[in-house]
Write a structure and sequence with these properties.
21% strand, alpha+beta, single chain, Beta Polymerase, domain 2, 98 residues, globular
Length: 98
């Protein structure tokens, strides 16, 4: 799935964005670089609204819902969850999707 298609699908999901108090979604990795293959997953960085409390189960539910929406496995991560050695590269290539 192209980055444009992925962005369009995510932007259309206003109810999901409100339900999970999402401030922003960013695509990174192979899809953002236009290097995806049929077996590629979709890497998404999520930022939640300040003060929102998203627990582990809600986070897993969001990941599952995004996977269903995009019809691909989604790897979901927060900015704090990025590996320190990769963080700068990921943030540089990240494309805002919603």
């Amino acid at each position: 799935m192209s980055v444009a298609t992925t962005i369009a699908r995510l932007r259309a999901e206003e109810a999901l964005i409100r339900e999970f108090s999402i401030r922003a979604l960013y695509i990174f990795g192979s899809v953002a670089r236009g290097e995806e293959s049929p077996g590629s997953d979709i890497d998404i960085l999520v930022e939640f609204e300040p003060g929102s409390r998203i627990g582990l189960f809600a986070f897993a539910r969001l990941q599952r819902r995004l996977s269903e929406l995009l019809e691909k496995r989604v790897d979901l991560v927060t900015r704090d969850g990025l590996h320190r050695a990769l963080k700068d590269r990921i943030l540089k290539e990240a494309v805002r999707a919603a």
